[in-house]
Specification:
The chain is mainly beta and about 280 residues long. About 5% of the residues lie in helices and about 45% in strands.
Length: about 280
């Protein structure tokens, strides 16, 4: 079985009293991309799971973990994969899908064998993984860079010019509840998801990457009237509860992958927070 660490749900009342170490321990997921192994962060928010795998020395198989009480990982789950490294492949029950840089794959419930490989160990694939419970089996589907929905957001004047790409959403691929996409902040801008919002019907996880080694992103969370922040580095993820905003500002431009789960697949389902009312 794969390794895992459980992240329990926290109430907004409890989080108000957390110090920096406690906040990071509850919500930050460090070193997501593991070489030649998968280590899951298993969140109790919508049973969302986060991991990453970089196959270098050998291929890596997707294995179940004890909390699932399942004979195989996708017995009652669906899986989203986005490759942010070199070219690699994902084999699903014997069928091989090649994923180039920033291509994605949706794997539906009921697929028993999933194997990750890199084409070149000197430039390995870097597979970022999200998984959620599923109630129905949908077909496996590859999402190439030409298949995504692209939206241009923000402006240089408000320091939030960015390109949003929807990969695994119900307008692109049939899914149960998982949604995934990628946002890239343009040079000269710093803010993501600003104006901020909450969506009480869904939780969300941000995975920050393409952050220069000597730079960082300050991620903001918490209730709109009582926010907190977590400083984040390249290759780290952060869990956002349904009651929390999720926004960030970097010391350089950067990218992040967003993943959502909950009871509503409407991407526009959000309650926007006025910037001048944040506290």
């Amino acid at each position: 079985m794969s390794n895992y660490k459980t992240r329990y749900a926290s109430s907004p009342q409890s989080v108000k009293s957390y110090n920096t170490e406690e906040l990071r321990s509850e919500f930050l997921i460090e070193n997501v991309l593991k070489q030649d192994k998968i280590e899951w962060a298993y969140s109790h928010y919508d049973r969302f799971m986060v991991a990453g795998v970089v196959p270098v020395e050998s291929s890596v198989s997707l294995e179940t973990i004890d909390p699932l009480k399942a004979t195989y990982f996708l017995e009652r789950r669906e899986l989203g994969i986005i490759n942010i490294g070199g070219s690699g492949s994902v084999s699903v029950d014997g069928e091989k899908y090649t994923l180039a840089h920033k291509e994605a794959l949706y794997v539906g419930q009921g697929n028993k064998e999933v194997i990750f490989e890199s084409e070149d160990s000197k430039n390995p694939a870097q597979f970022y993984l999200n998984s959620t419970p599923a109630h129905k089996a949908f077909p496996v589907k590859k999402i190439g860079t030409d298949d995504v929905e692209v939206i241009e957001l923000g402006s240089p004047e408000t320091a939030n010019a960015r390109t949003l790409r929807k990969y695994i959403v119900n307008s692109v691929v049939d899914v149960c509840q998982l949604q995934m996409g990628m946002t890239s902040i343009k040079t000269g801008s710093s803010w993501n998801t600003m104006p901020a919002h909450v969506h009480d019907r869904r939780m969300e996880v941000y995975f920050y990457f393409e952050v220069p080694e000597d730079q960082a992103v300050c991620h903001f969370m918490g209730e709109p009237q009582e926010t907190r922040h977590i400083w984040m580095a390249d290759g780290e993820a952060v869990i956002s509860p349904p009651w929390s905003i999720h926004s960030g500002s970097g010391t350089s431009n950067y990218s992040f992958i967003w993943g959502m789960a909950g009871e509503n697949l409407d991407y526009g389902d959000m309650d926007v927070c006025k910037i001048n009312e944040l506290r």
